[in-house]
Amino acid sequence: MNKNTHSPSKATRNTRKTSPAKTSSVKAERMAAMSVSMEAYVEKEYVETSSDRGWVNYGDDNLFPQYLSDLYMSSAVHSALVRSISTMVAGNGLESDTSEGQLSILELGIYKQYPKLAHDLKLQGGFYLEVKRDGNSKISKVSHIPFQEIRIGEKESNGDILGFYHCLDWSDGTCPVTPVAPFKSKGTPGSIQLMSCLPYVTGSNTYPHPDYMGAVNWIEVDKNTALFHNNNLANGLTPGLIINWKNGIPSPEKREALKDEMADNMSGVRNAGKFIMTFSDNEQGAPEFTPVPLPDAHNQYQFITDEATNKIMIGHRVVSPAMFGVRTSGSLGSTKELETAAMLFHHNVITHMQKYLTDCTERLLAANGIAGSVDITNDNPLLVDKEAINEESSKAVEVLSNLITRVNENKLTKKQATLLLTLQLGYSQEDANALFEPEVEVEVIEAPINPEITE
User: Fold this and answer.
1) Tell me, what DSSP letter sits at residue 13?
2) What domain range is 304 assigned to?
3) How far apart are CA 19 and CA 185, in angstroms?
4) Is residue 308 in some structural domain?
5) For the chain, what is the domain count?
6) How far, in Å, CA of 169 to CA of 293, rounded?
7) Contact yes or no for 93/377 (Cβ under 8 A)
8) Residue among 70, 20, 21 nearest 44 (CA)
9) Percent of the chain scoring above 90 in pLDDT
């Protein structure tokens, strides 16, 4: 690796490998046949290797995060699940059990970043947050950094990461790479650090894996099935062919060259349905093309599609596909079934992912001297019950009372209090301002208890 290049060029990005084509020949007096081995799928290789510039390469081409992003953009089922589950993880907002913590969440801008963090956590298996400090070494702002833009540096003997490296495009060898210091509870004035969430997974020493890692091959199936059908439709649903050349038997070298050319032009999902054009000077020398239709094709395609969808759902740990609008045989999709499935999925998957977000937020608040716990409010309608609604209402009254008290004690300004009311309790700006307006004396005119009614 030269000093001006830190990864393979764009031309090699996420290129699928193919195994060498195997051939066999059968010689007869006037005929020779060759079997062409079509393109073979080889899964994307996951490796971690040290570079000569300080970071650990992520994937055989250092572009594994980009590969996961490409899969997200290419599979309808996978993409929908990532979006839906990350939205569930993000919930309806971060909530601190103290007014100081809630105000800090708003002022630092954490509440704007956590939906992006939840998306990266689901898609990539982790996330990064840029932390900026002011002149007093206090954290003044946090910003989400896309997971695919960061590479991790070497580690100390105790496992602590020495540093991170940021690059906008790791596939471009000319793009500058900037070192970034890891987050510490204390920092120098004006410094920039990088907070990381890198959950441990088996088989990885440095980088995390997304929880659907075992289903990557099936996501490829879903992606390639769509490409295959699109190319078939674009080319008129042309079936496979047996090609018999009638202009003599060429030498083994020429047959091999012809076979390679046909394989390059006809094999693979992107070449489905392509046609061949030939030229001959007489009918006897013209090649013969015999269509080979796939028996029971529609059932085979349907099986592949259903199996891929099922395996992708399992990879994402989905309890019931009906939660995401996918109806399966043997499932009624009743409200009770959906509620049970939602509860199990929330307990087994969502809460564990939310814990990474809340722990990160609590660490940021603690670095600024603010204690307390942070939770993510739930917005899944299948999990809302009467007790939760009553508890939420009581909590809202308690928060409102606490804010008014702190304003009266000059511990919060009216501007800070109205900001908390609008973002935390959903008050309109007008209603929030009205709560802190100076009291106005109102003259009350007493009316008779039993007024006489006159015509």
Assistant:
1) T
2) 216-319
3) 51
4) yes
5) 1
6) 44
7) yes
8) 70
9) 38
